[in-house]
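Quick one: structure tokens for this chain, please?
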Amino acid sequence: MASMTWHETLRADLTDALRAATPDAPTLCEGWQARHLAAHVVLRESSLRVGAGIAVPALAGAAERAIDELAQTATTPEGYAALVDRVAAGPSRWHPMSVAGDAANLVEFYVHGEDVRRGAGPVPPRELDPALADALWKDVRRFARARTHKVPVGLVLVNADGPRARVKGPKGEHGTVVVRGDAGELVLWLSGRGAASTVVAQGAPVDVALLAARFPLP
């Protein structure tokens, strides 16, 4: 039997976290309970309209309404269990997400799993398989510049295991901020969940504050 890909492993982890939570359990996604997050995952993989709404701001309102409507069907334990079963099942074969693989789903499922795990308050980071940590670090280096290009400070990311990546140089009179953490924690920070992460930032206070205004720090 073929081994599971990382996004399949992380889907299973997310499913376990959702099943361990109640429908109204808090998450790191502002305004979303566990049932809303589950609805988001299901619709991302079953509705082209909602998928477009995630990427296109003009369609975001319709996507949010669809998520709210599906989440409303999961207020009872039975309805919630049925929705989480759909998360576990994954996308239909006709949907583009069925062939998107780790490229589209690795960070998505890792972050949402942590959204559920850490939603109720601080919990220790998971100890990740080294190969998974390497995969997350590669994704961090791939998308960090695009996500931080509007922040005028320079940025260097340091993986706790040693590797570092110079993401971008500073603009004008600003300096560079160094952000350190395990690969999974850096993913959370770049995804706007830094307040729940364990990353550490070093730099001039004004530069750290500018960076933290866009990407919150612990």
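Residues 7 and 106 are 5 Å apart (CA to CA).
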